[in-house]
Amino acid sequence: MRISYNWLKEHLPLNVPAADLSKHLLQLGFEVASLEHTGPSFTGVVTAKVLAVEKHPDADRLSLCTVDDGSRQLAVVCGAPNVAAGQTVALAKVGAVLPGGLKIAKSKIRGVESNGMICSTKELGLGDGGGILVLDPSAALGQDYAATLGPGDDLMEVEITPNRPDCLSHLGLARELASFFRLEVKAAQPAPAPKAGTLDIPVEVRAGQACTRYMGRTFEGVIVGPSPAWLSAKLTAVGLRPINNLVDITNYVLMDLGQPLHVFDADKLEGGKLIVRYAEGGETLKALDGKDYALNPSILVIADAKRPVAIAGVMGGADSAVSAATKRVFLESGHFLPPVVRKASQSLRLRSDSSYRFERGTDIAAVQTASERAAGLIAELAQGQTVGAADYYPDPAQPAPIAVTAARLSNILGAPFPPDAVQNALKAISARLDVEGDQLKFTPPTWRGDLTTVWDLAEEVGRLLSYENIPSKASPVALKPSRALPSQLVAERCARRLAALGLFEAYNYDFVSDKLLAKAGLSGAFARMRNPLSEDWAALRPTLLIGLLQNAALNLNRGAESVRLFELGKVYQRRDAGVSEGSRVAGLLLGPAAEPDWRLKPRALDFYDVKGLVAELLGDLPCLEWLPLDADTAGRTAGDPLFHPKASLRLVLPQG
Prior knowledge:
Layout (H helix, E strand, L loop, with lengths): L1 E3 H4 L9 H10 L3 E8 L4 E13 L7 E6 L4 E6 L9 E11 L3 E2 L3 E3 L2 E3 L2 E2 L15 E2 L9 H4 L4 E7 L10 H12 L21 E3 L5 E10 L8 H9 L7 H13 L3 E5 L8 E5 L5 E3 L5 E3 L5 E4 L4 E4 L3 E2 L12 E8 L1 H11 L4 H8 L5 H16 L3 E8 L9 E4 H8 L5 H11 L3 E4 L2 E4 L11 H12 L20 H15 L3 E2 L5 E2 L1 H6 L19 E2 L4 H13 L5 E13 L2 E13 L16 H12 L6 E4 L20 E4 L4
Parallel strand pairs: 13-16, 27-30
Antiparallel strand pairs: 1-12, 2-12, 3-4, 3-6, 4-5, 6-7, 6-10, 6-11, 8-9, 14-22, 14-23, 15-22, 16-19, 17-18, 19-20, 20-21, 24-26, 25-26, 28-29, 30-31, 32-33
């Protein structure tokens, strides 16, 4: 997730440099994949006015400019062709430091003294525009130009582990850092109380097990337009594109509090009501991405009286989206079961920032907090007047307390942490910690759904008190190697022999594409994946040779003249009762029969090279009988389209 350091500090009084904060986050289990500084990275640059421009006496492409920096007039040599008298420019005075560490000093250029440099956007690190940067003529002279651009920011790409969906927001990460640094999280901005009364757009929840909470608010008198600069800047910083004030408010609350929201144009809802239900057969929805999706009965939807208007927890519909003409809106804030959202997202191949969070689990208490926060912003930025609010919450969440002792947690961690330190660590996570003698009764907050056992608490204590305080000790348990299975011994023997015969072992995935199966001339009912990651991994391989042929093609395309490969692995066949698998070994030889040698005449590989290799691999097995591959053996005919029927043989080991 992309985190703005300035935004993070709105929730937490941090005084740690962003680079150091990255190290602390890694200590907590969150890797910072990248750190980018934005904003001005120069000092000593002021706004100035060009009073006069004359030709340099000794250079055709240079100009001698007289510049007023608000306190005195300076002579500055400039090489930009677009410099002109009367312009307001960015002047790097003597002593200024530009991006890259360039320090401006008084110097002579072609015999003429220059007291600074008139800067371009490229020289200031603000873009690649050509020529000098021309500013607004009304800008006051002598002011620090960096200050006019606003404060810089540090943007961090933080890797959030799947078990910590509570940290997929600025508030969530601030809570985590507050526990670590023992700081207080700043309270959220208060929202206006909703207007008394019921919703004029009633909500009916028919799928209560999949939707455990649903809060709705209606607003009238809404004015849809561009967002203010501060809101657009925040969204842009974290990689989101500003759309309009209403949509931007929902995205802002999502990134701030971690709770997905959605706004409907209330006048586009048929029948004047909303229903949370599963889709019916044959229903479709045109989503906000402009694509039409066929829905099935396993997909939870938000519907009006006639048709679905949103895929619950995934994406809204285009037909009910807000537009510049919208006057009445319905604000949705809900809590949907993670497996339901995950199944819908995967079956439709549709991902969004909302589904990413719902799939992992959101805080059910944030449904109300986020709705109130958005309501306040809609009133402030879109002049929306709250008509009514309703909250479907039949079974309020009650996190189960966890009983434990400090000694028990220390025993799990393998280090004697002081009881006071353990209690302080747990209090930093949740204020609901009851202490009775040695017994601790910890009740996790609603946003920490990952804390359910004493081992979870031990992990938290270890993280907050630092794993470095746990001594390293050798395990007293002596592990004995397990005995290898006969099949494993045979596979190991084959691998050693083939390697000794000059072949290199290849490793390929068990998955193949339909395209490769068709290329190999294979047909029939193959073992297939129900939910493949891509089309290239749609089926399970029926033979090892497909992968080896790909390996050979890769080597030949890169200039290899000789290819000697083998692979040990499993192949899969579709049966009436399911899928059967078996272990196989396969080899592939290409190129000349031997390495070039002046004593030997070059020759190509032939059948006898392969026969000798197989005989060496199998050792002293008696009664080897070589038969054509398409010959009938014991009533079985087994032709293989990968081999030529008249240029291939099968080795048969007689039974008995």
